[in-house]
From TrEMBL:
The chain crosses the membrane at residues 62-84, 148-166. InterPro entries: DUF212 (IPR003832). Keywords: Membrane, Transmembrane, Transmembrane helix. This is Divergent PAP2 family protein. It holds the Pfam family DUF212.
Length: 169
């Protein structure tokens, strides 16, 4: 099949899948009481699958075309942007999400002090009900530098493992 001939693509996809699957045991090991299996489909957390994907792509391209290749230059530029973005803009968005969730909880708590008819008026003005528990998942948008670094190492590791399978074929 054509897709299996694309070593860099297979490496990147394998890195994403492996890293996402790795999030659950890491979360359990860290004794996060709110851990559920849904963590494997969310963004953020340890390790960064974004970093794993781009570092795997870069490593595969280096192995296939050499470090001086234009493909490696493009992928490295893309990878640096992805990793910085996951620590910067996306991380800040996640932290703002935490603040918004706290504000919503506080407003909900304060609205309970109003008489029943005013509570109904407040509820009618809202476009939809807000469930802070469901929104809590959204706070994990970005990554800490350690999560990006472990993702980078994971991507390199996965590339060499995939390469072992390619050598057997």
């Amino acid at each position: 099949m054509m897709i299996f001939e694309n070593f860099p693509l297979i490496c990147s996809l394998a890195a994403i899948i492996f890293t996402q699957a790795l999030k659950y045991p890491i979360a359990i090991f860290s004794k996060d009481k709110k851990t559920s299996l849904s963590i494997v489909t969310t963004t953020g957390g340890m390790p960064s699958s974004h970093s794993a994907a781009v570092s795997s792509l870069i490593t595969a391209l280096i192995l296939q075309y050499g470090i001086g290749s234009g493909y490696v230059a493009i992928a490295t530029t893309f990878g640096v942007i992805v990793m910085f973005d996951s620590m910067g803009v996306r991380r800040q968005s996640g932290e703002q999400g935490i603040v918004l969730i706290d504000a919503i909880k506080e407003l909900t708590r304060l609205s309970l002090k109003f008489p029943k008819n005013e509570q109904e008026l407040i509820a009618e003005e809202a476009e939809e009900k807000i469930y802070p528990e469901e929104m809590a998942v959204k706070k994990y948008l970005g990554h800490k530098p350690s999560e990006v670094f472990v993702g980078l190492l994971t991507g390199i590791f996965v590339t060499f493992i995939v390469r072992l399978f390619y050598e057997q074929i």
